[in-house]
Amino acid sequence: MTTRINLGLAFAALAGLVITAAGCRGESATHAAQSEQAAIPALIRQVGKPEMIELSLSAVPGARFSTVREVELPGVLETTGQVSFDDRRVSTIVSRVQGRIEQTRVSLWDNVHRGEPIVSLYSPDFMTAEAELLQAATTAKLTGKPEMTGGVNLAESLVTAAKRKLELLGMDDADIAAIKAPAPVVWMRAPIGGTVVEKKAIRGGAVNPGDELYSLGTLEDVWITGDIYEDDLARIHVGQNLDAVTTAYPNDVFHGVIARISPGVDPNTHTLQIRCEVKNPGLKLKPQMLARVKIVTRPGSALVVEQDALIFETNGYYAFVDAGANRIERREVAIGSWSEKGYARVIAGLKPGDRVITGQTIQVNALWHEAHGESS
Q1: pTM as predicted
Q2: Other Cβ atoms closer than 10 A to 27
Q3: Are residues 227 and 82 located together in one domain of the fold?
Q4: Cα distance between residue 279 and residue 220, in whole Å
């Protein structure tokens, strides 16, 4: 009996020791977790100055400072552009009468010559205007002796007015001169030589004044429109020579010049557009093609920052900048692409020599929001 009691007491004492040890370990783990969690930094607000937080990098293991640096740019400025028609070399055939389409002679992508018959239109307006011309011409012949009023030959004025009316209806000079009798069908001719880039004319279709029937374009000279960063603006000018290369013809170099520089800058990307006039031998460059444009210019410089220093949130990029005395400022940064892996080009928001937090930007961003009483 005595032995059983002693064994029971021994087991009870052992259990008590185990529970006590477990409690000590749990309490130690809790204290360790609390010590590893970084304290919420103090928020610093100053009138007329940006908000900051008070934070030492030692509180964020793995975080470090890196410096925004300025690097040299080579004497070649590169950009990607898109080929398009020179809109000064594009012409549209528009119906100027109410009627219908009788015939069409060309289709999409056909090449045409200037003055070539494209589409014939039926309209009583043609017949009426032609009859007026013939009547005016007959009257002028029968009159013989010019009838002058205020020094103006009335008969010739009627003929001139009738011809002008036919021109406004879209008739060619040669077709007007060939009129022998009124006819309701007239051929519309190509105003320029080029390629049919759009066709809306359908045989038998009704037309009204202002309806577009065909669009013609030429490809001997084309435009390439590309974007450049605003801090490269001082390196380019109108008339500057350039070369363009496409993936379709990697061994062909197309030469041109900068023809226009856009007057405005995109506030979101801090870029502006340049329009290049490029020679197109063999008509190889096609609208909507992408081309790599190289402009020989003077050397320049650019700001770069490590990509790890940036965090994207909502609709922009941000960096945490060292303001001294363990104070950190959060700045919005506009960036562009950069050829060196792991770096981004700074367009706005930072300056050379700024020290930014790198490595643990996500954790620092979370502390920033906690300092503001927000959830990150």
Answers
A1: 0.61
A2: 10
A3: yes
A4: 6
